[in-house]
Design a protein that fits this description.
Shape: globular
CATH superfamily of the largest domain: Ribonuclease Z/Hydroxyacylglutathione hydrolase-like
Radius of gyration: 23 Å
Helix content: 25-40%
Enzyme class: hydrolase
Number of strands: 18
CATH architecture of the largest domain: 4-Layer Sandwich
Protein name: Ribonuclease Z
Organism: Geobacter soli
EC number: 3.1.26.11
Strand content: 25-35%
Number of helices: 11
Largest sheet: 8 strands, mixed
CATH topology of the largest domain: Metallo-beta-lactamase, Chain A
Keywords: Hydrolase
Distance between the termini: 32 Å
Order of helices and strands: EEEHEHHEHEEEEEEEHHEEHEEHEHHEH
Number of domains: 2
Length: 335
């Protein structure tokens, strides 16, 4: 089965951070960090359902205005999540413009912003276009395990890192795949159809193998069916495999606690997108600026057992010497 998620960096590694993740079977995408979005065409911006912001330094949040401008006049709800103080930052950005004409718009573009706190509490608010993006419907809730979004097919999990300020790192975790063995269905004389989606949900939902399950289809205008146990269908006609895992880490001091949290978050990931601003020979400069070095980035990927490390957020000091950063990451990753 082809991968569900297709990730790519929005900009070159010397420019603003941002990771765009496209969904294979939906007109949908998510974005990690909101730096310069100019390389994203409007059609890609309009696919976004959620944006997860690590922190609001200018190179991670300057793209907010362009996203809002492209979404104006559309019936769309866009979710943004960031660290403590994020709702105030969104309020300030939207409050910087005059919205006297939007009350007549036929659509109501809505920004739903939320901020996560280290104790797991989450504070959210909504900003409706037709209400001139005034702050309303504020709520407080609590999340467990840093899970910011939990849907049928995937979840987004976060951890706090120290960048001199609280900074979030994110993991996009696809839940297990259930593959249908269609050759076995044909051999058993069973048709494909909507019942297969129900079967996948039953398996992924952890329902008991002993539960009865009806395989149904339409034939000559009539509904027909055959009953099996869920366990028999699972054993004979499906194969369950682990889903993708994509991790995004940026702007983190090279402290032991940060390293521990990154390794735990990234464990077994298919992709680790991780900052590598400086060579290790400049580790004092990196530490002073609360950033990782290329060597540490590679070591973290190795310690986490990831399949692939993708470095980014290179310091402009290395313009023309990009290969040095990439080589140091790769040496440390390969051990």
């Amino acid at each position: 089965m082809p991968p569900l998620f297709h990730p790519h960096l929005v900009n070159c590694p010397f420019e603003d951070p941002g990771l765009y993740v496209d969904f294979l079977f939906e007109r949908r995408a998510v974005l990690f960090d909101l730096g310069d979005t100019a390389p994203l065409p409007p059609r890609k911006v309009l696919r976004l359902s959620h944006i997860f912001v690590s922190h609001t330094h200018v190179d991670h949040f300057i793209g907010f205005d362009r996203v809002v401008r492209l979404c104006l006049g559309r019936e769309k709800r866009l979710h943004l999540v960031g660290p403590p103080g994020f709702v105030d930052r969104v309020t300030a950005r939207l409050g910087g413009y005059t919205w006297n004409l939007v009350g007549t718009f036929p659509t109501d573009f809505t920004v739903a912003a939320a901020e996560l706190h280290p104790d797991g509490s989450i504070h959210s608010a909504e900003f409706h276009c037709r209400a001139a993006f005034s702050r309303e419907n504020e709520q407080r809730d609590h999340v467990h395990g840093g899970v910011l979004l939990d849907e049928e097919a995937f979840r987004v999990r976060s951890v706090f890192l120290d960048h001199g300020i609280p900074c979030l790192a994110f993991a996009l975790e696809e839940k297990n795949h259930v593959h249908i063995l269609k050759n076995r269905l044909r051999e058993a004389g069973l048709p494909t159809g909507p019942w297969l989606a129900e079967l996948k949900r039953a398996i992924l939902g952890g329902r008991d193998d002993g539960e009865p399950f009806t395989v149904w289809w339409r034939e000559e205008g009539q509904e027909r069916g055959t009953r099996f146990s869920l366990g028999e269908l699972r054993e004979r006609f499906t194969k369950t495999v682990a889903g993708q895992k994509i991790v995004y880490v940026t702007d983190a001091a090279p402290t032991p606690e940060n390293r521990r949290r990154i390794v735990e978050l990234a464990a077994g990931a298919d992709y680790l997108f991780i900052e590598a601003p400086f060579l290790d020979e400049e580790r004092e400069r990196a530490g002073d600026r609360c950033h990782l070095t290329a060597r540490v980035a590679g070591e973290l990927g190795r310690d986490a057992g990831v399949a692939r490390v993708v470095p980014f957020h290179f310091s402009p000091r290395y313009t023309g010497r990009e290969s040095l950063l990439r080589e140091e990451v790769e040496r440390a990753f390969r051990g």
